[in-house]
Structures are given as structure tokens and as C-alpha cells.
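Limitations
The C-alpha cells in this dataset are predictions for the assembled complex, not deposited experimental models. Users should treat interface geometry with appropriate caution, especially where small molecules or nucleic acid strands are included. An illustrative entry is reproduced here so readers can see what is and is not provided.
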Amino acid sequence: MTEKGLQEAERCELIHVHEDIIKKVDRTMPDDETLYDLADLFRIFADSTRIKILYVLFESEMCVCDIAQLLGMTQSAISHQLRSLKQSKLVKYRREGKTVFYSLADDHVVTILAQGMEHIEE
Amino acid sequence: MTEKGLQEAERCELIHVHEDIIKKVDRTMPDDETLYDLADLFRIFADSTRIKILYVLFESEMCVCDIAQLLGMTQSAISHQLRSLKQSKLVKYRREGKTVFYSLADDHVVTILAQGMEHIEE
DNA sequence: AAAACATATGAGCAATTGTTCATATGATGA
DNA sequence: TCATCATATGAACAATTGCTCATATGTTTT
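Predicted assembly:
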């Protein structure tokens, strides 16, 4: 027979994980909204242009135009990316006349990038 | 006049960053290949399904089918994602008969996710 | 007010991505 | 060897993304 219910997910013949592991996973797993936020955050780090911008800002606060020149990219491209970085609260900015200076918002940027580096350098 | 050379990048009237900052950036910036690898690594964390899989594996090694059930997703979807995680060396696996058990490959996974969590929880 | 400079932003396009569906591979037991 | 279970994988499709181009906004100077 083995008629498969259509709406329920496929099942293995036997479940390998113990009951208490399942319970623990349920307790530990953050809720979906948090997981989406977390994925969104890492998506910001998932682009080499944005990583370059962050590395540049390690050294000093900098205006959009200087970053663009340093990275050899257009002002528009950099501005778009700074927008993402700003929205994720990874960078902050201050205005000084016509110029807007960007800088790192907190230490997590450094830590996260450093951990990533450690991983790929193995 | 201010005739703009076409091939050179746009310039600000005056560069704000100091000469020595520029030099330091050039010294500190990892090469492009490394930056791409780093971006690729973070791209793996940029999806909530993969994050869920990693969270599940925090508790215990687990087979593909169990993960699929726990997350309410198809075997195929999970298998595809495990492939990415495997390629990034974030998970490892061992075969036991028909079953393949996956587990976390190293501690960076935990650290990186934890740092990400800290950031979004502020 | 007008011109010039720095930055921001919207539309559009090519490229990438996550899932589904169908099917292939691999291992076990009858 | 054949059927079955567990896993892997290729093709296809919708959705997302990063850049470019054109233009808008905001600030300073004349």
C-alpha cells in the first residue's frame, strides 16, 4: 500500500533523531522573522563591493567620492551599496556641507569579517 | 573647462582622505580572489533555509530526511542546500548504509551566526 | 537666483539564486 | 536480480540583485 498523504511531507522509514533532540531543536531554533533578518544581514556581506567598502572604512571614515575613487567604481554604484549598508546599520554617516562621511557602525562588522576570513583561510 | 577624461573615474574636487590612509588601505585590503571567496562564504549564510539547517545541526548530526521533516521541506530542497554547505566546508558528512549523516564542520559556523545574531538584536 | 559640486535614487537589464519536478545514483534486503 | 529506500542532481522558472544611466535632492558659492 504505502499510500502517501499528499499534503504531508515525505517521511523516512525510520526517524533517526531522538525525541529529545527534536524538542531541543524546537526550543533553540529562533523564530522565522529573526531567521529572515539574520539571512538579510549576511546577504549584505555576500558581495565583494560591499566588503571592500567595509574594509576601506576599517581605516578611516570616508566620503562617498573618496570610496568610489579608491575602489575604482562609480559614485552611483557606491552610493547604492552604502544605502544597503546603512539600512543594515553596518555603517553610519555624518554630513559636513556637501560631503557625507561614512564610518563603521559597530564592532560586529570587524568580528564577522574576521571570522569569515579565518574560515576561508583554512 | 573641467573637461572630464572619459576613461578615468569621476573625481571629487578635493580628496578628503590623507595620503597615508590610502596607502594603509592598499596594504590592508585583501586581494580580489580572497574577497570573492569571502563574499561566497557569506552568501551561504544569506538564506534562511541554510541557516535553519545549521541551527538544527547545532544539536546533533542528522540525516537528510530527518532535516527535511524537521524543517517541513522536501528532501530535494534540503539536499541541494546541503550541497552548498558541503562545498563551503561548513558541514561534513559520513555515510552509514543508505543514510548520510551531516554535521557541522567547524566552530566558525557557530561564531559567525552568533555575531550576526548579536548585531540584529541590538 | 543660478551654477557647481556631492550625494541619492528610480528604472531597466543581465546575471544569479532557491525551489520544484523528474530522474539518476547508491545501498540494502528479498 | 529486482524492488525499495535514501540521497543527489539536472533542467526550468520565478524572484532577487548589482550595476549603469539619467535625473533628482541638497549644499555651498558667486
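Some entries come with short summary sentences. For this one: The first helix of chain A runs from residue 19 to 28.
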